[in-house]
Amino acid sequence: MSPQVPVVKFNNNLKFPIIGLGTWKSKPDEVYQAVKDAIDIGYRHFDCAYFYLNEKEVGIAINDKIKEGAVKREELFITTKLWNTDHRKELVVPALKRSLELLNLEYVDLYLVHWPMALKEGFGLSPKDENGKTLFGDVSYIDTWKGMEDCVKLGLAKSIGLSNFNHKQIQKIIDIAEIKPVNNQFECHPYFNQSKLIEFCFKHNITVTAFGPLGLPYRPLRPGTTTLLEDPILKNVSEKYKKSPAQILIKYQIQRNVVVIPKSVTKSRISSNIDIFDFTISPGDMELLNSLNKPDGRYILLDDYKEHPDYPFNEEF
Ligand SMILES: NC(=O)C1=CN([C@@H]2O[C@H](COP(=O)(O)OP(=O)(O)OC[C@H]3O[C@@H](n4cnc5c(N)ncnc54)[C@H](OP(=O)(O)O)[C@@H]3O)[C@@H](O)[C@H]2O)C=CC1
Ligand SMILES: O=C1CO[C@H](CO)[C@@H](O)[C@@H]1O
């Protein structure tokens, strides 16, 4: 039976299922089956991006399931993201239309600015000079936000938000927004628990989505470290609740009222990752998980962008 997934409410009253399926690194042939399996299992929220180069296959899977009568469009919550080379205000609506065409949908539920940093337009997704240096753009994210607002006005996005913005950048958007951001998506797991940024977002009525909630286990390991999934303290908590380490990490976010988007293309994991509504982590064990936080716990650092004037990670949060 499909689990009943709780929802988080946006400041515009849209309901956001608290768990969704991530799709970064899901190969096009794998993601088609993964999305169909996820819908059968009970997922209603899918996290996509133009940058992931698999929106087309996600869209085919969604539309096949709708045609089959397994689910209705209005029961689904689809997020996608504006890539950094499309930050100029005039490019935002066309970029969303391109994603919608790939997804074969009339609207998305949430459209996010993927990063605050613009890249030079017209030279592919990762523009570089002849020495391999990333080519930055000079569009301010304030201008980009005006294009995002146009997406809502045209009915192409039900809501709009941010990703990888620090608190000062969020504040700048809040200060000029006609349509306020409803969400900020950023890296978040017990090794980098982001408590200050979460507190800031909640104070401003902005929901939070945790990416990399399993600690991005595919990343190259730093010498002398293990993956978060293999952390001995997490393993103890997992044994105590008779739930897998991944299930503990997902429930940890949900208990903080943080939306969580674990990625998997493995049916058994897609299923177990949402089988988390039959237990509660005690306040003491939530604290224990919080205590795993490390100053260098962030893994998605985007080294190539460090000299960009809008690089978000020079601020504490
Ligand atoms: N806004 C942004 O800038 C970013 C957004 N994201 C979004 O967040 C999503 C999630 O983050 P992501 O980087 O994928 O990392 P995750 O922390 O979700 O880890 C995904 C990895 O964990 C494996 N996995 C899944 N379930 C389990 C399990 N139960 N036990 C053990 N291993 C498991 C997956 O393998 P397998 O698939 O083989 O099962 C995959 O290799 C992305 O897919 C994307 O949608 C991610 C990065 C940046
Ligand atoms: O979602 C994402 C996946 O990873 C990329 C890094 O290579 C990021 O740019 C992006 O945020």
UniProtKB/TrEMBL annotation:
The record marks K81 as: Lowers pKa of active site Tyr. The keyword Magnesium does not apply. Gene3D superfamilies: NADP-dependent oxidoreductase domain (3.20.20.100). Residues 19-293 form the NADP-dependent oxidoreductase domain. Belongs to the aldo/keto reductase family. The keyword Protein biosynthesis does not apply. SUPFAM superfamilies: NAD(P)-linked oxidoreductase. The lineage of its organism: Eukaryota, Metazoa, Ecdysozoa, Arthropoda, Hexapoda. This is NADP-dependent oxidoreductase domain-containing protein. The active site is at Y52. GO terms for molecular function: oxidoreductase activity. Coiled coil: none annotated. Keywords: NADP, Oxidoreductase. Substrate binds at H114. It holds the Pfam family Aldo_ket_red.
